[in-house]
Amino acid sequence: MPPAFLKLNTIKNVIIMNTIIKLFSLVFVSLFISCSNDDVNNQNTNNQGFLKTGDQTVTLAQAYLENYGKKGDSYNIDFSARSETLSGTKNATAAVYFELFSSQEKKLAKGDYNLDDYSSFAPNTFTQWGQSLLGISITSTDKGLMVANGISIKPTEGVFTVTENAKTYKVNFSGKGTASNYTNGKLTSTQENVDFSMEYNGNVEHYNSTEFTAKKVNSKERLQKMHTIIFN
User: I need a labelling partner for 197 at 20 to 30 A (CA). Which of 8, 13, 107, 152 fits?
Assistant: First the structure.
């Protein structure tokens, strides 16, 4: 067989092999991306939760932990959760925020958390600065979370419970609070001792936070937090 023919045949074989390798690479990458997307989708789909007050209930789709570091003998780790969207104009949306103090450095310790003053920094407590909002168009302002049309409740009594705190979290709250009703962004009425409850079971995103609306980060007073993570 002539050398030129052998050389041509070798080149053809190399081209065929390269083509096969590229095809296998494309298939592998496609499968990897597909599996990764499925993992993310399954992770979000498996999240279960709700915020309920009166006859209104809205599903919570994602939760967050913000670690503000050590305060006294405990760690300020805040819990937030939100519905799939916060900018709806027809269907009700929801956001939940609890300011908590944990005995553990990087997670919420299991157990019951009871209401206490922010300045006490006592482990297994939550403060009166929490908010649970249910309604249309939830935003963050320099005065805290706001709802254009709906209800905002600040806790005055109740128990926040953590039963799972590993890869997934399982938490719930049942209690009462002071409810502020808003229409077109304006406060229309307030009501005391309003019952509300919250449950969440699923994935939690973790953040180390230093975001405050005030400039004096070293102030001894409690500074309003920005809550930007739930709007990302």
Answer: 107
Give strand ranges (E) for 18-165: 48-53, 56-59, 62-71, 74-82, 93-98, 100-102, 111-115, 125-126, 131-141, 144-165
Say what the pLDDT of residue 89 is: 74
What average pLDDT does the segment 224-231 reach? 82
* Residues 170 and 180: beta-carbon distance below 8 Å: no
**223 three-class SS:** coil
Determine which helix (DSSP H) or strand (DSSP E) holds 12, and give its type and residue range: helix 3-45
**Token reading at 135:** 């309604």
- Structure pTM? 0.77
Exposed e or buried b for every residue in 107-143, given b needs 16+ CB within 10 A?
bbbbeebebbebeebbbbbbbebbbbbbbbbbebeee
Q: Which of 29-38, 54-63, 181-190, 193-202 has the lowest mean pLDDT?
A: 29-38
10 Å Cβ neighbour count for 214?
A: 12
Tokens at 17, concatenated: 């092999």
* Confidence class for position 174, pLDDT limits 50, 70, 90: very high
